Amino acid sequence: MAHLGNGVEYGLHCLLWLTGSHAEPASSRDLADLQGISASFVAKLFPRLEKAGLVEATGGVRGGYRLARPADCISVLDVVDAIEGSKPLFECQEIRGRCAVFGGKPPAWSIDGVCGVHAVMLRAEQAMRRELARTTIADLAASTGKKAPDGFTQDIRSWFNARWSARTDTKAPTDSDRTAGRRRRKT
């Protein structure tokens, strides 16, 4: 089982799409539909990202999410901690003190200091957190952008604009619209 869940992957990919230059906010549903992932799962991620100050939300039909700060000021670690919390990579169970030959009373030499296994896990976690902290959403977007063919950014911008236009062209029916609709159905 992976230590970091798929929420981190989904969150990072969603934030990458928000680094684009489309002018309007993107809804969690649009971000999910664009990537072919669960809209309900993505919708659960964004309050965590918002609480962490990574995105900001606007409400209403034209609402959605935008990055709350520049992409080069949001680290991958910020996203991991927002979605997963800052839980440790490894939780030492202090097995070394349970050795059968100690008869339930481990000597001081066996438990003094940090366990060797725990020490290596701590170093690994620190190295991972350093790498995640130094890599920004802007870094990821730049490396992803290098792989994309010419015109892909415009295709994405057009896709988002079409979605946004569809939302803004749809209006809630007024009371008079509903009344007229009922009269038409009765006749």
Q: What would you note in describing this structure?
A:
Helix content is 57%, strand content 4%. By secondary structure, it is mainly α. It has a domain at 6-86 and 136-170: Winged helix-like DNA-binding domain superfamily/Winged helix DNA-binding domain (Arc Repressor Mutant, subunit A, Orthogonal Bundle). A two-stranded antiparallel sheet has the order 1-2. A hairpin with a 5-residue loop joins strand 1 and strand 2. Helix 1 (6-18) packs across helix 7. The longest helix is centred in the C-terminal third of the chain and has 19 residues, at 116-134. The radius of gyration is 25 Å and the shape is elongated. The protein starts with 5 loop residues before the first helix and ends with a helix. Mean pLDDT is 85; it is low at 173-187. One of its GO terms (molecular function) is DNA-binding transcription factor activity. InterPro entries: TR_Rrf2-type_CS (IPR030489), Tscrpt_reg_Rrf2 (IPR000944), WH-like_DNA-bd_sf (IPR036388), WH_DNA-bd_sf (IPR036390). One of its GO terms (cellular component) is cytosol. Residues 166-180 have a biased composition (Basic and acidic residues). It comes from Dyella telluris.
Q: What's the short version?
A:
Residues 166-187 are annotated as: Disordered. With 187 residues, the chain is mostly helical.
